[in-house]
Structure formats: C-alpha cells, structure tokens
Amino acid sequence: MNSFLTKARQSQWYGVGLLLIMTFICWAVFKIACPTTFGSADKMMTYLQSGLIYAVGGCGLYFIVVMGLFDFSIGAMMILSELLAIGSCQYIGYAGIIIAPVVCGLLLGLCNGIAYVKLHIPSMIVTTGLSLIYESFSVFASNWGGTRLDSAYNAFGSYPWNLILALAAFCFCGFLLKYTKVGTYTNAIGSNELTAKNMGVNVNKYKVIAFTLCGLFTGLMSILYLGYGTAQTPQTGMLSQALNFQPLMGTFFGLAFKKYGHPVVSIAIGEFIIAMIFAGFVALGMPTTVNNVVTGAALLIIVCLTTKRVNGAVVK
Predict the structure, then answer these.
(1) How far is CA 187 from its chain centroid?
(2) What are the C-alpha distances in Å from 78 to residues 70, 197, 233?
C-alpha cells in the first residue's frame, strides 16, 4: 500500500489530480451552502470565463516569479493596452483589438526588464514606479480613443473565441517552458542564480526576456478582459495595483505544483478555483469586500511559502 502511494505521488499527474479534487470540494461546499445561486452549469461556464482571463496573465507572471521576481505593473499595462485597443479598432477594426495590446505589452515588458537590469534595484520597486508612468499614459490613451469598446468588436469576451485565445496562450506558454532555453534557463536561475551564471547563462538577458514575455501575456490578457467588460477607464494613483493580485495567485498555484511538471495546467485550474471561491462568497450574500480579505490572506500565505522556497530572493 505504501509503495502504491509513493508511486502515485511521483506521478506527473498527481498534482493535477489534487487540484481537481480541490476544485470538486470547493464546488461541493458552496453548492451545499447555496444550492440555488451557485454552481449550475451556466454559472460554472461564467466562473471558467473569469478564470481564463487571469490564467493567461498568470502564465506571463510565471516566467518572472519562478526567478524570484515580481511585476507590479501588469495592472497598469493591461489598462493601457485595453485603451489603445479601443482607439486602434476605430481605425483598423479587429486587427487593432489584437495588435495594439500585444505590441503594447511587449514594449512595456521590455522596458520593465531593461529598467530592472540597469537600475539594480528590487523588481517590486522598479515595476511599481513604472506603473505610475503607465497609468499616466492611460489617461492620454483614453482621451485619444475613448473608454468604451464598440459592441461589434467584443468577440473575445465570450465563447468560443475567448477559449480559443486562452488555449493558444496556454499552449505557447507550455511550449516555451518545456522545449526552449527560456524555460530551462528561467527555472535554472530561479533554482540557483549563481550556479546558472557560473554555467554560462546570461542571467540579465533571460531576465529581460522573462519580463518581455510577461508583457506579451499581459497584452493577451487585456484582449480577454476588454472583451468581457467592453469598457475600461484609466486608473491613476496606483489604483491599477488591485488588478495585479488575481493573476499572481494563479501563478503561485503553478509554482506550488511545479514539481509535477504541469505549471500551466495548475495555473488554469488554480484561477478557476479562485473564481469559484469569489463567486461562492457572493452567492452567500457576503459583501464584495470579502473578496479582498480572501485575496489578501491568500497572498500573505503564498508569499510566505514562496519566500521560504527561494531563501529571500523574492525581493530581487
């Protein structure tokens, strides 16, 4: 019996199985607590829709967080990308919905990476400072193109196009992590940066690449987010920081189950669980501020666990 359990734990799908069990338990608890307002088939599809959006952003953050870094500018990047998409689609149609966020995300992610490498200060400080700049840019973008997406361009806000885009992003992320030097070297840097450097890895180069990829996936997330909400207003005074945390929580699911070899699947399931928990509290009649309590408590626990894992490297 012990031998069977040991082999099961060594299976690469063991972690995914645990996540699926957690998903079922979460659904069952809230379904029993509020059977008429939670967990029906159509509501589950809504929870999945919300989870897909943040899971795409979580995939981008994974490249950074696995190295012990953080990007606190993705909320501001997402808002700016959405506003540029709203303006661009008025001139070039659906191409603007896709091209503007992707290009914006890539460029801002590249700026984040270069700033972090050149300034030699913690990533949290660099990206928080840059988020203030991006927030200011979003005001100019809203003046240029407005804040509401025309209903003719919201295909990515519903099935099947949101699912297609999310699956494409997941496959791309999985390919990068498993079959390219980017995935190999980011994991190596996260495990032991000094050893990776001694082995000839250009650490700064791959940190810049990781930030750039984070920007790319943030751009893809903004496409889904804009299609789902159909409008976006600029946020200033660091209000965009609130958008950083839900993708980050999914990323930590990926890190926690990384040893089983399926971080992308873990991120997607984790975000689905988070979406169900938030919806469950709403179904129970709890105020929406409870979501902030849950988010804050979960992040504190997760950051403590991650800090222990990387021996303090999370503030690089």
Answers:
(1) 18
(2) 16, 32, 11
The per-residue pLDDT for range 10-57, each reduced to its tens digit, is: 567 788 888 899 899 989 999 998 888 898 889 999 999 999 999 999
The two three-digit tokens of residue 141, written as one number: 């973008």
CA distance to 97, 146, 153, per residue, from 140 (Å): 18, 10, 22
**Using CA atoms, how far apart are residues 316 and 314, in angstroms rounded to an integer?**
6
Token pair recorded at residue 51: 């989870």
CA distance 215 to 8: 37
| Predicted TM-score (pTM) of this structure | 0.90
Contacts of 106-110 with CB under 8 Å at 24 or more apart are 106/212, 106/215, 106/216, 106/219, 107/215, 108/73, 108/77, 108/80, 108/134, 108/215, 108/218, 109/77, 109/211, 109/212, 109/213, 109/214, 109/215, 109/216, 109/218, 110/208, 110/211, 110/212, 110/215
pLDDT tens digits, one per residue of 211-234: 999 999 999 999 999 999 888 999
In terms of Cα–Cα distance, which of 118, 56, 175, 123 is closest to 310? Answer: 123
Parse the chain into domains and list their residue ranges: 41-315
**Two tokens, residue 278:** 């938030």
Q: Scanning the structure block, which residue is given the tokens 């699947």?
A: 265
Q: Nearest to residue 101, comparing CAs of 251, 232, 265?
A: 232
Evaluate whether the domain defined by 41-315 bears CATH number 1.10.3470.
Answer: yes
Q: How many residues does the chain have?
A: 316
Cα angle, residue 301 at apex, residues 297 and 303 outer, rounded to 5°: 115
3-state secondary structure of 261: coil
Q: How far apart are CA 272 and CA 52, in angstroms?
A: 7
How do residues 97-120 score in pLDDT, each as one tens digit?
999 999 999 999 999 999 999 998
Bin 235: left if φ > 0, else alpha if -120 < ψ < 50, else beta: beta
Other C-beta atoms lying within 10 Å of the C-beta of residue 68: 21
Largest CA distance in the chain: 66
